[in-house]
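Researcher: I'm preparing a figure for a lab meeting and need a structural model of a single chain. I don't have an experimental structure, so a prediction will have to do for now. The sequence is pasted below. Please return the structure as tokens so I can convert it later.
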Amino acid sequence: MEQPNLNRRDMLTGLALSAFPSDTPPAGASSLYIPKPHLVEDRQLLHDFMEEFAFVNLVTASPTIHVTHIPTLLYRDRGKFGTIWGHIARNNPQSATFDGKQPAVIVFQGPQSYISPSWYTTAEVVPTWNFAVVHASGKLKPIEDPKAMHDFLAQLIHKFEGPKNTSYDFAKLPDSFTYPMIQHIIGFEMEIELLEGKFKLGQERSPGDRQGILKGLAATKPDRSLLDVTAAFYQSHT
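Model: Understood. Here is the structure written out token by token.
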């Protein structure tokens, strides 16, 4: 069963202050470099993070590197580390990798920020950049059954419509409309074979430095929101 999301700030703070795991992925198996202090293996926390930051980068490398940006659903109880479902346009050439053989990495990117040396109590320091990310690796399999695709889309839409409290109801749309639309997309499922969490949040620093990071971030001007970017784009391109 899916677990409820944690409050974003509480979850990231908890990860930063948690005990460091002792093991690292086997050499050559990892999809990214993770220093030991930044490695997070708590599966529930990683799953919570993946559900919160569910708009991902789907990365494949056959025949060339290709990246698609899509929303996803995580099924926590399917497979050892969970299973991810998503979909792309049927005309997207990346669909050729949905054969159950080609490896893929799905990147869940969380918050990020520049960290000023002035925030630390330590004197001799350099700037850095803190961030949180989860990589899920596996092989992509196509979802061939239209009914399965319809049910998946209903769940996906409900996940993102629900918090916005809108009146839109995908289930009320007639099959004569939805099923022809489904023909224009192709779904995939990926059982996670390797799950990697990298949370570079300054958790290895002194208590004074960590408090400085929290105070500095709290005083930092927020990044532009999607509303800000969209409004500026409309103004300059219409």
